[in-house]
From TrEMBL:
Pfam families: APH. InterPro entries: AGP_Transferase, Aminoglycoside_PTrfase, Hygromycin-B_Kinase, Kinase-like_dom_sf. One of its GO terms (molecular function) is kinase activity. It comes from Thermasporomyces composti. Keywords: Kinase, Transferase. This is Aminoglycoside phosphotransferase (APT) family kinase protein.
Length: 289
């Protein structure tokens, strides 16, 4: 694909330079007086839906990059470049990032106040966005009905463990499947998607896995890569009233496991049983057994 031509159509001018970022379909454009992020649709992901998620968030004063332009042939989006580093950068790795997690918590709470139709991953819907499924939660349903059994059959999980995990999903089924108030979710909340400049919080990025559903789905993701302390700092800004009694012991771990099962099944289908096991181990699912 001619990235320069796409940039010209979106922005009306030719970039001075184009630099890949290392992320598939994402480029940094040197426009002479500013840097712009160019993102193209890849792997079935709709950049147009992501752009509308950014716009919905910005309209509610959530700190996110500004959408500069979108195009449909091919689907592409030009975004404001936030000149900072993520919490996963070398610069921030050994520093106290609790301030950024608190601010991210405040933004996340505001994001979760946005109500949308449907459930699950977002898709374009008229001039807006909606979840592509009719009920919550597609990932949980897939994990319980197919994912666990697939991983047992592939030798990733012991059959006894599989049955116990299925029982835990059944135990929480009323709460897991009864959510009927769809909210806009980031869908991939992690330190790598929180930007700062020094001790200044810049905002949230990468909405390509945005969903409509239960806000606790976003909270459940945080401990996977960033640990329990990051979740505690996030909740300092977000507030703890969203979590009910026992949510941190059962519902959040089940949400996290459902997300990881989705990826572990793919690894197992590719024949990489050890990678699937390693991915699952990061959820500490044994605590549910």
């Amino acid at each position: 694909m001619d990235v320069v031509a796409v940039a010209e159509r979106l922005l009306g001018t030719t970039p001075v330079g184009v630099r890949p970022t290392g992320s598939d379909g994402v480029y940094l454009l040197d426009m002479g007086t500013r840097t712009v992020v160019l993102k193209l649709s890849t792997h079935g992901h709709s950049v147009l839906a992501e752009a509308r998620a950014y716009q919905a968030a910005a309209a509610h004063d959530v700190r996110v990059p500004r959408v500069l332009a979108t195009g449909t042939d091919p689907e592409a989006m030009a975004l404001e470049f936030l000149d900072g580093v993520s919490l996963w950068s070398e610069e921030r790795r050994d520093k106290d990032n609790s301030f950024a997690w608190r601010r991210a918590g405040e933004d996340l709470r505001t994001l979760h106040e946005i109500r949308l139709p449907g459930f699950g991953p977002i898709v374009p819907d008229g001039r807006g966005i909606a979840g592509h499924a009719d009920s919550w939660c597609p990932f949980v349903r897939s994990a319980r009905e197919d994912g666990i059994r697939t991983l047992v059959d592939a030798g990733v999980l012991d059959s006894r463990v599989g049955r116990r995990l299925e029982a835990r999903y059944d135990e929480a089924a009323a709460d897991l499947h009864s959510w009927s108030d769809g909210r806009l979710l980031h869908g991939d909340l992690e330190g790598g998607h929180i930007l700062v400049s020094g001790d200044e919080y810049l905002g949230l990025i990468d909405f390509d896995q945005a969903q409509v559903g239960d806000p606790r789905w976003d909270l459940a993701r945080v401990p996977l890569w960033d640990g329990v302390a990051a979740l505690d700092a996030l909740l300092d800004g977000y507030g703890r009233d969203t979590l009910g009694p026992g949510d941190r012991e059962l519902l959040l771990p089940l949400y996290l496991l459902a997300f990881v099962i989705h990826h572990a099944v793919r690894f197992a289908d590719e024949g990489d049983v050890e990678k699937a096991r390693g991915h699952l181990a990061q959820t500490q699912y044994e605590r549910l057994v």
